[in-house]
Amino acid sequence: MFAYDFMQNAFAAAGIVAVLAGVVGYFMVLRGQTFAGHALSHVGFTGATGAVLVGLSPLAGMMGMTVAAGVAMGMLGERLAHRDVAIGIVLSLSLGFGLLFLHFYTAFATQATALLFGNVLAVDAATVWTLLAVGILCLGALGVIMRPLLFASLQPELAEARGVPVRGFGMIFLAVVALATAACAQIVGVLLVFTLMVGPAAAALRVTGSVGRGLLLAAALALAEAWVGIAVAYVTDWPSSFWITALSGAAYLLAVAAVRG
Amino acid sequence: MMDAPGTPAVALRDVTLRLGGRPVLDAVTLAIGACEFVGVLGPNGAGKTTLMRTILGLVQPERGTVQVLGRAAARGNPAVGYMPQSRVALPTTRLTGQQMVAATVRGERLGLPSAGHATRAEVDRVLGLVDARALARRPMAEMSGGERQRVLLAQALVGRPRLLLLDEPLISLDPHHQHDVIALVRHVQLSLGITVLFSAHELNPLLGVLDRVLYLGGGRAALGTVDEVITGPVLSRLYGAEIDVVRLHGRIFVMAGRQEVAHCSHHAGASDDVRV
């Protein structure tokens, strides 16, 4: 299965994205911002379809839109990030615009399916390099702000009193989430980014009480789910996104059961 | 580390504070001495939280000066420890008490979270101060309200502060756990020789430990011993209404008309002091 270029690209892209999604997702779950991440992916759909319409690369369009929306969300403050109704409306509005752009582009159904549900086997070598650059940038930025971000996530008021620029770091984090979401959508599509970003992190947070082990476990789980999902998809000829969501769901349920039992 | 004798822990000079256009303190001058245990009381919206945030340098007074341990109030002062009003948080995570406290040890620095020897030693020290070493390995989500307050108090003691601001640490605790938290804070305050500002809805649980009480209301403030401040005339001035103080079996009831003030404001729900 590794004899094919497209399989090599798929494993490389999924590996990069899974590690990024696991680590970023850990902080999303810790900060209660999973729904905000979900909304960002839908905004990315608008960006991607809009970019295709004007002849740009969908990945560039998606990243541009998600980062802009993420920073805007951060500027409006923590309050917005927890407002379900406002986020839900932005989410559906974005999908609506995406649909409109697809309509103007006329009947490009495969493009729509690939954006919504992912098509990891269609990832080319250039995209792998882009994802690697995005992954290094995001993990690098997160590495720099991780300590104050953790402090601000667990005790925002105390962190503010100790001089942590809580709002600023929140904004940088949402920009990282935005890029990670766009990267993740290349593997599993905008509708299923939850499966790699939230599933493994939520399972890890349930299983271990240590931040360090939790981050490692989230990244390892995401990586295992992505790679095993693609391998099983290769054998069964079912969509890889389905297998990844199935594995992610199973891992989370196992984590819940393990802690209860 | 010791302050010059006579340097107040907190000194307000002619301070006017506003919150959303509404005056919270109006030209208030007062000084809280070193090593005092001061209860901060007053109706909801009287500005207990805003006063603490001003001492922390998070809120700027409209007029006047705020001195903390002899220097102008400024954000990030390591000599001031803070325990914010606790909210419902972290219900699904299993992060341990040790990890919660470790995140606050020099948590303002850039880089990766620290798991080094110095961090672990500091976490162990502050958990020991609040008699909570046994909670180090327990998940926060599985702790009782009183145990969680111990961990949060340990967080506030990180960095050896000389002034401790505790915002409503008794909220949502039953009377038994309230008593434990008060006794613990008094023990820590006396053994470390630090100043404590302790805000609360009710005076009675604190009666045995308070050195002085700071009562806020109607933009004014009264600071003094319980006998000096908790009187009909002083409280009537703060509330802007006729207030009676009834003492019964060592307990004190503050009454407006026929209702007890602390209780009726507690259940009113709408509150400027509670920040969600």
Automatic annotation (TrEMBL), chain A:
Keyword field: Membrane, Transmembrane, Transmembrane helix, Transport
Q: Entry's InterPro entries?
A: ABC_BtuC-like, ABC_TroCD
What residue ranges are annotated as transmembrane? 12-30, 50-73, 85-108, 128-152, 214-235, 241-259
One CC-aspect GO term: ATP-binding cassette (ABC) transporter complex
Compartments reported by the entry: Cell membrane; Membrane
Principal location = membrane
Set out the biological process GO terms recorded for this chain's protein: response to zinc ion; transmembrane transport
Topological relation to the membrane, as annotated: Multi-pass membrane protein
Q: What PANTHER family does its record include?
A: ABC-TRANSPORTER METAL-BINDING PROTEIN, IRON TRANSPORT SYSTEM MEMBRANE PROTEIN HI_0360-RELATED
Question: Record's family?
Answer: Belongs to the ABC-3 integral membrane protein family.
Q: What is this protein's record name? A: ABC transporter Mn2+/Zn2+ permease
Automatic annotation (TrEMBL), chain B:
Q: Which InterPro entries match?
A: AAA+_ATPase, ABC_transporter-like_ATP-bd, ABC_transporter-like_CS, Metal_Ion_Import_ABC, P-loop_NTPase
Sorted alphabetically, which keywords does the UniProt record give?
ATP-binding, Ion transport, Nucleotide-binding, Transport, Zinc, Zinc transport
Chain ranges of the ABC transporter domain = 10-243
Q: What would you give as a GO molecular function for this chain, any one?
A: ATP binding
Could you tell me which Gene3D superfamilies the record lists for this protein?
Answer: P-loop containing nucleotide triphosphate hydrolases
Tell me one GO biological process term. zinc ion transport
Hey, which family's this protein in?
Answer: Belongs to the ABC transporter superfamily.
The protein depicted here goes by the name ABC transporter cation transport
